[in-house]
Amino acid sequence: MLYSKFTYMNKRLLLLQLVFFLSIATAFAQERIVTGTVTTADSGEPLPGVTVNIKGTTTGTVTDADGKFRVGVKPGAVLRFTFIGFAPQEIAVAAGVNSYAVKLQTDTHLLNDVIVTDGYAVQLKKAYTGAATAISGEQNENKPFTSTMQSLQGEVAGLNISNSSGQPGANVEVRLRGVGSIGAGSNPLYVIDGTIINAGDLSTMTTTANVLAGVNNDDIASISVLKDASATAIYGSRGSNGVIVITTKKGRAGKTEVEGDVEAGSTSDLPLPAAGEPLTPAQFRTLTLEGLKNAGYDQGTIDYYTKLYQGPSNNWYDLVTRDGSQQQYNVSVRGGDDKTKIFASGGYFRQNATTIASSLDRITGLINLDHSISKRFSISLGANISNVNQYTPDNGGAFANPIGSAYFLTPFQTAYNKDGSINISQDSYPSGVSNYNPIYIAANDKHFLSQTRLLGNLSIKWNIIGSLKFTSYVGLDDNILEENQYLNPVMGDGAPAGSGSDNYTRYFNYLVRNQFDYRYNILKNSEDFYIDLTAGYEAQRSAAYFIQSNSTGYPATQPSLTVSANASTPIVGNASFNDYTYDSFYSRGSINFKNLYTLSASFRRDGSSVFGRNNPYGNFYSVGGAWNLDQEAFFSKQKLFSSAKLRSSIGVTGNSQGLGSYSALPTAAYGNNYAGNTGQNFNTLGNPDLTWESSHKFDAGADFGFLKDRLTFTVDYYRNNIDGLIQSVPVSYVTGFSTVTANIGAMVNRGFEFDITGNPIKTPDFNWVTDFNIALNRNTVTKIYNGLPYDDGGFQTAVGKDLYTWRAPIYAGVNPANGEALWYTDATRSTKTDVYEDAQPVDGYQADPKAFGGFNNTFSYKGFTLAVDIYFNYGNYINDSWGGYFTDGLYNTEVNKYQYIYDHRWTHPGQITDVPQYVDGGTNNGEAGNYSTRFLYKGDYERLKNLTIGYNFTNQAFLKSIGISKLYLYGRGTNLFTHTYDSRLPFDPEVGILGASNLEVPQVRTFTIGLNVGL
């Protein structure tokens, strides 16, 4: 089997790796030379490609990918360091000093000093041919979000981030330059400190979880978002959806820096739109009785409900939500010398959510160590460990969902008895739409996840000779998830015996990489014309192991005994595994002439156990070029631009995400037992031709600078033609199966990205830094199986349409004469009908936005700072999945309704409104609540995502006298204001990629105060 071959290869590779590490430990460099590292003065990032010349001669060298250099010198020599975008620096070589840490100061240009890290190398954006955005970690430090990706929302053009749930630690949906697949995954690839990680929600029982919730924002040095082929083809069959590279902080030579911060505050739910507020008890009574009357019920029935709905009542939404709290504490140490550098940190984060039974605790720790063994060898070691404990309530239509209960329960079903005890009387909670008291469920059920993660890496670098370097790298991504679910035996899904489930999940993912880097100067004794070459071999294996157990029969009198050892009857206990491997060769080369012209190319050959035996390997490539016009002689003759760069790339990348580890293989399974005997049957048909989805990418971009680059403008046009999309297609039933997974479909994403960054005002006292970005994307399906459209969850997938195109009858409002709902019979909107079946479903609107972006500003005046971040989203429509329950007379006496329905319902002939007459059982014989464009709402909105006001006490003489180098006090508010464009909208417009509300934990607003101290 292919999998066995990869396992064998990995074992050989690990053996060779061990031999290599042992052999190089005895190596000793004989050559006596001057060495050092060149970094940026502000961030400490290494600078590759810096020219290091011996002043007065043509002898010199250039720094490698890690900013390191080595050069032979004579006594009294002066080294001159030059690099475009940085001020030149000269250092006289002192007797007996053979190593130097050089820190280059940036000049006034903004475009030139950006560094892009792609996981294989560090490159200056001036000579970079790809489309990528680099975000400094400092930009998002201390932000009160549980996931790094939440902080990035609105900061990168083309990066669409949706927080569909306010649950702390929830999975975050991310799309880069549109939806990348139909049947496979569309998430970007995540790389942390060189390791390709397992990302997303790895839990098996939890409502929502996110492994990136274990990464502390304060530990991040930079994030690079890689977009086009030139940037992502190096990742081969996993680069199509874009790549997000996260680099954690490292130590640096110089004074030891100790920094600590504390932040605490409160959280509250975002206010419900007025249209979506549940009815008050009095309003519910009025509407219910009106519905009975309109349905023709006799007076006795009406009198019964009149009396029933005059008793005690409560506001369920207020009962299932609460004021939450949030706190975080971080401390870090950074320092070192020219030989050894270290960064270490520890952090604690806690959020008590605003919905009952929802919370998160996180502990993180990071250590990064860099050490120069000798003049030729250096070693780097990193370890990032975290533990996240999470309580998550149900969502959607589950009776135990507290947010759903706020609507599915009537105001007259009381939460508490007169004596203050929780009400569990079946008289109050009879069988019906919802018969659970969410207060009791929250207190007695348990949905718990403990996720422990270790990210580790070890690399050894060998400067073989001259500009030839070798790096050997091992990365580890180890995830352990322990989940416990307990459902009490008194009320809820566990009644009457109680039930419990315990799941253990382990993902052991490791990656090994050996890479050669070489720089060759085409012109002798000159750094103006050179070639950079990279070649490497990479292998990765992820081994997942699952143990599951279920039990029932828990003691009703002992609610604290929730572990399965206390249950009387074990139901299920089993174990399983799920592994995959990748085996890759990659190479990359670029040629640079004076940073004026740059040409680059990359190639990767990927093999994987997830592909079919007829297509186990794939080839992926890119070609890119950049022209820095500002280096041309003619450029100085104009005064409008201070810098200008044109770039373009083409290439092919792949997507194997979501294929399934064994989808390509015909498999058989045991478990179909008969009469006590073991039974086996085929459970996967398999497809030997199954392979990756391919994206043929084209990108053309331009970067312009004005006013000495205090204002920069970036524009990109892209077109991604994606083919071989995964779909389930019908097969003959004689196979024993109805469908098979195959590479069938195709679609295209195309669009524009704009980014304006600037420092419009810069004076000794006042400074303004701003960034505005917007992305415009269009998705079009170009091929599906047999070309036949098909419906999928409210969408219709059809050639020529956006993948997420809503298909529904068009709602035409209300007949003023009788209050019945109307629909248009077809797309022409020329004829109306009051019979739902006569209304033809029509393609229209789309769930993914046509435009989105951010507007971020930071103002500084003397010691004061004001940061304002705004996110916006336009051009999509979102669906109310449960609207039929809350907008019509269906379940009239059992389910609460939206405020909009009460305020706008039809009550008399001649009334013009969009809400039908309210009738018990539903208007139009119950059809008014059927799915139609009535339940689609404009998803356009702007949100004040972050507002921070702070004061920096750093320059206070008193603080310096007691050893405090930094003291920053700030207050922060998040999600302070949201502006929407649909008065009918009953919920928050940020609902996720699929554009549907599912009664999730609401988004929250936070108010915190923080203090940052540096020593």
Please compute the radius of gyration using only Cα atoms. Answer: 31 Å
Q: Helix/strand/pairing class, anyone?
A: mainly beta
Number of helices: 11
Q: How would a textbook summarize the main sheet?
A: 22 strands, antiparallel, barrel
Percentage of residues in strands: over 45%
Helix content estimate: under 10%
Instruction: Compute the average pLDDT.
Output: 89
The tally of strands reads: 50
Shape: globular
Structure characteristics:
1015 residues, 22-stranded antiparallel beta barrel, five-stranded mixed sheet, 11 helices, 47% strand
Word description of this protein:
Helix 4 runs antiparallel to helix 5 (299-308). The strands form 11 sheets. The protein has a 22-stranded antiparallel beta barrel. It has a 5-stranded mixed sheet with strand order 10-15-16-13-14, with no helix packed on it. A 4-stranded antiparallel sheet has the order 3-2-5-6, with no helix packed on it. By secondary structure, it is mainly beta.
